[in-house]
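Chapter summary example.
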Amino acid sequence: MQLIRAAGILVALVTTACGGATVSPSAGPSSPPAATASPTDSPTLAPTAAASVPAGDVLAGTWAVSRTTCAQQQAAVEAAGFTAEQLTSVGWGPDCPGAYTIRFANGRLVEFSSDGSVGWEGKLRIVDANTFEAVDFDCSITYDYAIDGDQLTIDMVEDVCPAYSEAQLLGEQVTQTEIYETSPFTRQH
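The structure predicted for these 189 residues follows.
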């Protein structure tokens, strides 16, 4: 009995040390991250919601970005590592789109542009307490997120659009960075 209890404690310790991750024998090597954070990047905030609250409930609602400047948007795409050559190749320029509002409801993520029109809508899938995925018929985009009080920080992790050319995918990635990584979103009451 003590051997079984000791084995159980060991499993609990290993699971805790690994962050609760489970290892599958059939799992292959994980792919490298798309970008590595530099020491100058803003720190990632830890979610403040209790672990017992489903992530979808934590995200539910409407979140808005306050007015952002072109300089802030430029800084966000530069911080993400896009080069001037890449930005020029996708036609990114000084005509900044402004602030966005997003809504998580009924299994959907809806982006509203600064004029209030729907810019994009995708099916929402919560991956874990720090990650969600939005999917439409063309693309599957994975985001890390953190909530600190009424502030929601979102970071695009992966953007998979199989039907897109390399140039189209790059343009999509720049746009996603500009929308989600320029400024935190604030929960609307």
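To summarize the output: The mean pLDDT is 74.
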